Amino acid sequence: MNYQTLLTSLEDNIYIITVNRPEKLNALNKTVIEELSAATDEVYTNKEIRSAIITGAGEKSFVAGADISEFLQLDEKSGEALARKGQTGVFDKIENSPKPIIAAVNGFALGGGCELALACHFIIASENAKFGQPEVNLGLIPGYGGTQRLTQLVGKNRAMQLIMTGEMFSANEAMQYGIVNKVVAQNELMNESKKILSTINTKAPLAIAKVIEVINNFDHTQQGYDFEIKKFGECFSTEDAKEGASAFLEKRKATFKGK
C-alpha cells in the first residue's frame, strides 16, 4: 500500500513502519492516524509479517506529539471523537496485536508520540531519545492512553509527577523507570530492534500471540492465574506445541508453522 505519511518495508518477516513527516518532527495528524491504522491492519493480516517495528524518519524525532494546528477547531464532542478514533483505531490495535510490534524510539517521543511508543509491546531507544507527556502545557491531558499505560509501567506516583509537570525525561531515565527495555547508540537502534525481533520470530507464533494476550490481561487476583492456565491449556491443541516437544526430545531445531 502507498502511504502519504508512512514509509514501509518488509525485511526477513519484520515489517518496518516509519512515520515520515520530518519537517513536522513526525507529528501525528489525521492522515498519520488513519495510515497507522491501515499499516497495523497489514500486520494482523499479512502472513509474511511475523513482527513489526514502528519508528520515525530522521535522527531527531520519533513522533513529537500531535499536530497542534488541528486542535484549534475542536470542541468537547469533537475532542472526544479524536481521542476515541486514535485509541480504538490505532493504539489499542497495536497493543493487542497478536504479532509483536515494538517501538524503535530515535528522538523526541512526546505527547501522542510517547503514547504511541507505550502502546507497543516494548521499547528500544537511542541515546538521544527524549520522552514526555506535555499535554498540560496546552491545557489538556493525554488522550491516547497515556494516563493508563504510563501508570501501569511506572506506578501511580511517578505517573502523576511526569504527567502533571509535563517535563521531558531522557532515554536512560525512561529505562530506570521501566518504560524502555534497552538504550543503544543511534546508529545501532534499528539493527538492535531487528536482532531482538529476529529471535522472537524463531518462536512459535501462536505461543507468542498468547503471551501478548495473557500479559495484556494481567490481573493480580486469581482471575489472572486462571486466565493463564486456560491459555496454557489451549497451546496443547496446536501443532506447534507438539513440534516443540518433539524437536526438544530429538535434539533438533523446531520448525514452527503457526498452527
Textual characterization of the structure:
The protein is of the alpha/beta class and 259 residues long. Helices cover 46% and strands 17% of the residues. The protein contains ten helices and ten strands. It has helices spanning 30-45, 76-95, 112-119, 146-154, 156-165, 171-176, 189-200, 205-216, 222-235, 239-249; strands spanning 6-11, 14-19, 51-56, 61-64, 101-105, 108-110, 122-126, 130-132, 169-170, 182-184. The protein has a six-stranded mixed sheet with strand order 1-2-3-5-7-10, sandwiched between helices. It has a four-stranded mixed sheet with strand order 4-6-8-9. Strand 1 (6-11) and strand 2 form a beta hairpin. Helix 1 (30-45) packs parallel to helix 2 (76-95). 37% of the residues are buried.
Order of secondary-structure elements: EEHEEHEEHEEHHEHEHHHH
Oligomer: single chain
Which structural class do the helices and strands define? alpha/beta
Q: Mean of the pLDDT scores?
A: 93
- Rounded to the nearest angstrom, the distance between the terminal CA atoms is 28 Å
Strand order of the largest sheet: 1-2-3-5-7-10
Count of helical regions: 10
Outline the biggest β-sheet. Answer: 6 strands, mixed
Query: Percent helix among the residues?
Result: 40-55%
Low-confidence segments, given as residue ranges, are none
The radius of gyration is 19 Å
- Please count the beta strands (DSSP E, at least 2 residues each): 10
Principal-axis shape: globular
Could you tell me the strand content as a percent range?
15-25%
